[in-house]
């Protein structure tokens, strides 16, 4: 007999028929005469109710406890009870894998997210994390679908890299040298010429530079892969290992880049709303519950579903960095000295500034463009004013920066000048500069942090709760 997934059973496709159902027990309740077993197999947030009547002795059901894996044969019927349309009238129940109720850590009561993080190997089995990771899966699929429909080529950029030129963040060294007794140079420094790759290597902080090389042949490419940053900051928005999506487009300027990013974000949110509505509704209720415990002025104005639909149906706000600074300096918040960090032309926007713009001032996602060149990467295209670069950050409510991107500097003399300014040697990036020498063209791209996107769509406040096994300072369990 073929197993049917709970999601399909709940749609009633096989009503009246004998079905085989496999999954994990969420709860069992009942009495001597009848027991109701809620079974979940991960295919949907909803459980399927299995009814075990007096045919089943107490002995036969003693190992049917929360967490156990079971296989049930029975008839799928319309449910008499409230709360579900269909249920299975069991004829046989096999316990495939027991879960000792004395030691199984997931009990019926609600557990805190912090506690569940410590048992991340089991948290997939909760409603919340089931919903989060189904949404994550859908978003990942939608990313590929979006770019594939637009004719973008998916490029796998290297994870181990010797280029430390990007300057995006602190890097993790990759080495096979003996940490206790490494070979040394005459100056007493570690001699990486004797290392595996013959030079010092790291885990990548971004696939952009390699992505640009591919865009100079395929026109439109994207990467979607793991990225590593040894940032020793314990925030709710930073991981040491995260997934990034980096499209790169030849013959695009900054405006086209921003248009694509906005269309892309709306597309994948809409796709999740269409395919994971129940999960998102559940997560929205979770948030609403959490909100009740907060003081009135910290509560969300919109529910999760309302927020997502609002984002999908409204244009993002677009402002220049200079306009953003003006808004901040003229705000009451600023006048009352409520910003912790300085605000003036030339400083980098801090998270508090970004949140003010997005959450208080515009109340919608904002694309900030044309930042001062000194606070942005060397490869961003210098504007005619000589002071700003064609950069763009997209800021989202509750998250802050979700996208960072720019039009790239295609003019080799200016690029080399900017590299010198930040101490990058031309020889180290000879291959990158070659694309400006041979058939160079205006081009642009951006990086979207996938986990921040998942946070936005699921409403989860901590980035550690949207990746199965988070890597953060002092933590690499599982
Ligand atoms: P932030 O200022 O938030 O640290 P960043 O300026 O370092 O971001 P970029 O280098 O532009 O970010 O990276 C592109 C995108 O990758 C960001 O917009 C963000 O969505 C995501 N991102 C950056 N660092 C992290 C991290 N440590 N963990 C998760 N996502 C990240
Ligand atoms: Mn950063």
Automatic annotation (TrEMBL):
Family classification: Belongs to the class-II aminoacyl-tRNA synthetase family.
Catalytic activity: tRNA(Asn) + L-asparagine + ATP = L-asparaginyl-tRNA(Asn) + AMP + diphosphate + H(+)
Signal peptide, first to last residue: none
Domain Aminoacyl-transfer RNA synthetases class-II family profile: 133-468
Compartments it resides in: Cytoplasm
Gene3D superfamilies the record matches: Bira Bifunctional Protein, Domain 2, Nucleic acid-binding proteins
Natural source organism: Pontibacter mucosus
Alphabetized UniProt keyword annotations: Aminoacyl-tRNA synthetase, ATP-binding, Cytoplasm, Ligase, Nucleotide-binding, Protein biosynthesis
Enzyme class of the recorded protein, top EC level: ligase
Annotated gene: asnS
InterPro entries listed in its UniProt record: Aa-tRNA-synt_II (IPR004364), aa-tRNA-synth_II (IPR006195), aa-tRNA-synth_II/BPL/LPL (IPR045864), Asn-tRNA-ligase (IPR004522), Asp/Asn-tRNA-synth_IIb (IPR002312), NA-bd_OB-fold (IPR012340), NA-bd_OB_tRNA (IPR004365)
Protein name: Asparagine--tRNA ligase
The keyword Cell inner membrane appears for this protein: no
HAMAP family for this protein: Asn_tRNA_synth (MF_00534)
GO biological process: asparaginyl-tRNA aminoacylation
Gene Ontology molecular function: any one: nucleic acid binding
Pfam families found in the cross-reference section: tRNA-synt_2 (PF00152), tRNA_anti-codon (PF01336)
Subunit structure: Homodimer.
Keyword Glycoprotein set for record: no
Main subcellular localisation: cytoplasm
């Amino acid at each position: 007999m073929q197993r049917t997934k709970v999601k399909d059973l709940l749609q009633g496709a096989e009503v009246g028929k004998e079905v085989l159902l496999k999954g994990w027990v969420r709860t069992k309740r009942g009495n001597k005469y009848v027991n109701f077993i809620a079974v979940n197999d991960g295919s949907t947030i909803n459980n399927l109710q299995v009814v075990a009547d007096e045919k089943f002795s107490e002995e036969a059901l003693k190992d049917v406890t929360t967490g156990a894996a079971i296989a049930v044969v029975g008839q799928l019927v319309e449910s008499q009870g409230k709360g579900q349309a269909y249920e299975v009238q069991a004829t046989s129940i096999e316990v495939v894998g027991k879960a000792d109720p004395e030691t199984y850590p997931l009990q019926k009561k609600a557990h805190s997210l912090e506690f569940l993080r410590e048992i991340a190997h089991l948290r997939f089995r909760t409603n919340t994390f089931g919903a989060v990771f189904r949404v994550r899966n859908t978003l990942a699929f939608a990313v590929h679908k979006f770019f594939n429909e637009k004719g973008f080529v998916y490029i796998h950029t290297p994870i181990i890299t010797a280029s430390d030129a990007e300057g995006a963040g602190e890097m993790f060294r990759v080495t096979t040298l003996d940490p206790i007794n490494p070979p040394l140079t005459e100056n007493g420094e570690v001699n990486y010429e004797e290392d595996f790759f013959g030079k010092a290597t790291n885990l990548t902080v971004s696939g952009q530079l390699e992505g640009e090389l591919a865009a100079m042949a395929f026109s439109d490419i994207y990467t979607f892969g793991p990225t590593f940053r040894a940032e020793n900051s314990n925030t709710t928005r930073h991981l040491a290992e995260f997934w990034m999506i980096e499209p790169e487009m030849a013959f695009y300027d900054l405006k086209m880049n921003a248009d694509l990013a906005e269309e892309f974000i709306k597309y994948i949110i809409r796709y999740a709303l269409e395919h994971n509505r129940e999960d998102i509704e559940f997560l929205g209720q979770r948030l609403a519950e959490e909100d009740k415990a907060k003081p009135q002025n910290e509560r969300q104005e919109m529910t999760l579903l309302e927020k997502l639909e609002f984002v999908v149906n409204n244009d993002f706000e677009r402002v220049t960095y200079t306009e953003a600074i003006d808004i901040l300096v003229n705000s009451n918040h600023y006048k009352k000295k409520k910003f912790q960090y300085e605000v003036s032309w030339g400083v980098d926007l801090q998270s508090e500034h970004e949140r003010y713009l997005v959450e208080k001032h515009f109340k919608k996602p904002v694309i900030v463009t044309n930042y001062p060149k000194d606070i942005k990467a060397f490869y961003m295209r210098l504007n005619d004013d000589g002071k700003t670069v064609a950069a763009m950050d997209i800021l989202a409510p509750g998250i802050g920066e979700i996208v960072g991107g720019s039009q790239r500097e295609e003019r080799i003399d200016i690029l080399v000048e900017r590299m010198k300014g930040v101490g990058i040697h031309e020889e180290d990036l000879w291959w990158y500069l070659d694309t400006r020498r041979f058939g160079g063209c205006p081009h642009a791209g951006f990086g979207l942090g996938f986990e921040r996107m998942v946070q936005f769509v699921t409403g989860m406040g901590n980035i550690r709760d949207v990746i199965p096994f988070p890597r953060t300072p002092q933590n690499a369990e599982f």
